Task: inverse folding
């Protein structure tokens, strides 16, 4: 049975300030869901926004999904003051997600996170997926290229209160539960940063930030948001029913990004500039530089139309460079790109019998009980259908619970 939620199902997007209701933005076709895009969408708490927009995200067109992606982008990038470090690109403002708890704030300490509108002083990097795939573990110190995970209060509260931040507590959790079931409104982000140096300057138009460890430019942002519970959460490994919404924003001028978007991304529907501007304007962040970024695509299930035939491909050319070929560092020349947010995260799981997490791998398409990978020691293969319990697409539990 799933754990009972004893906390509020949603948390306000920005906790230390009151957001003004945004006007409904125009430029939508008649199929747009007014429950999602109507007045006040920006001021809703995360759980309400997710629930109100689930039909548009999961049952609408690809264009509808792209609009939901931009709306999530506008919400997580609400601007807060940053007098200490000068904000993004010296504006004195920073996105609110830069004040959200990181993996280190969630898993690496027994101290509760103090939610505020104060951006953190430095990057809290996580091990990059290409290093996890190769069996390498990075140090905790910032280096020239970094990925950083952040989460909203809805997600943080559940992880803390459910006891999913240490391995011993995960074991205890699965004594009474068969699966993790994150609450609707949970948001997990992963940002990609690259250090600015004399030989590697920030590209024109890219947003930058002066951390304590140096200046970095922002290469993009993964967004995953829980929008609807599954009827049968124990079937997370295999169900094509959508519950999480996935999108990844990338700097438009990243080398090879246009090629990857046009040649490999399965489900994308770029919006006209006037519609993007309308969303950013309604979100109060137009003209800040966010126009230089865009979704590579969206994803809500394993395969196109949920029929199990054509895998959905979605990824970021930096954060999923390991999925490109022939040379992972040259996306403009890739002849293949095998990345899938939903398929990859679906394998996040725990085996109570062996007290072990399923090894990280990079599947695409639908999974089956016989899906298997080598264990951490490379000595044997482990099978997804043999005793593993779903973590509700939450790799951070498997990566960070120690």
Result:
């Amino acid at each position: 049975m799933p754990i009972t939620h004893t906390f509020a199902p949603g948390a306000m997007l920005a906790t230390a300030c009151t957001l003004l209701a945004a006007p409904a933005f125009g430029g939508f076709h008649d199929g747009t869901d007014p429950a999602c895009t109507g007045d006040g969408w920006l001021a809703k708490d995360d759980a309400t926004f997710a629930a109100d927009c689930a039909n548009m995200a999961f049952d609408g067109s690809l264009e509808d999904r792209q609009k939901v992606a931009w709306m999530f982008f506008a919400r997580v990038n609400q601007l807060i003051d940053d007098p200490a470090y000068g904000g993004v690109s010296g504006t004195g403002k920073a996105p609110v997600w830069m004040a959200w708890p990181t993996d280190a704030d969630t898993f690496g300490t027994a101290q509760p996170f103090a939610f505020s509108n104060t951006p953190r002083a430095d990057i809290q990097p996580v091990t990059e997926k290409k290093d996890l795939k190769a069996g390498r573990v990075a140090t905790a110190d910032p280096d020239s290229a970094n990925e950083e995970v952040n989460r909203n209060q809805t997600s943080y509260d559940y992880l803390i209160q459910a006891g999913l931040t240490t391995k011993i507590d995960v074991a205890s959790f699965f004594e009474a539960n068969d699966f993790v079931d994150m609450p609707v409104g949970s948001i997990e982000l992963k940002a990609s940063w690259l250090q600015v140096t004399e030989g590697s300057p920030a590209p024109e138009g890219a947003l930058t930030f002066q951390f304590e460890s140096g200046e970095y430019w922002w290469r993009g942002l993964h967004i995953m948001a829980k929008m609807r519970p599954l009827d049968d959460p124990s079937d997370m490994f295999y169900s094509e029913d959508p519950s999480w919404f996935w999108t990844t924003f990338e700097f438009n001028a990243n080398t090879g990004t246009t090629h990857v978007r046009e040649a490999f991304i399965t489900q994308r529907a770029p919006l006209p500039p006037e519609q993007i501007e309308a969303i950013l304007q309604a979100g109060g962040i137009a003209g800040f530089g966010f126009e230089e970024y865009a979704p590579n695509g969206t994803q809500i299930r394993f395969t196109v139309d949920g029929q199990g035939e054509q895998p959905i491909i979605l990824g970021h050319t930096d954060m999923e460079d390991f999925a490109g070929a022939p040379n992972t560092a040259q996306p403009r020349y890739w002849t293949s790109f095998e990345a899938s947010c939903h398929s990859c995260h679906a394998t996040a799981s725990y085996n109570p019998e062996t007290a072990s997490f399923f090894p990280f791998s990079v599947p695409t398409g639908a999974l089956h009980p016989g899906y298997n990978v080598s264990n951490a020691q490379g000595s044997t293969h482990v099978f997804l259908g043999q005793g593993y319990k779903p973590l509700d697409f939450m790799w951070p539990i498997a990566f960070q619970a120690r």
Q: What stands out?
A: The longest helix spans residues 62-76. The CA atoms of residues 354 and 387 lie 9 Å apart.
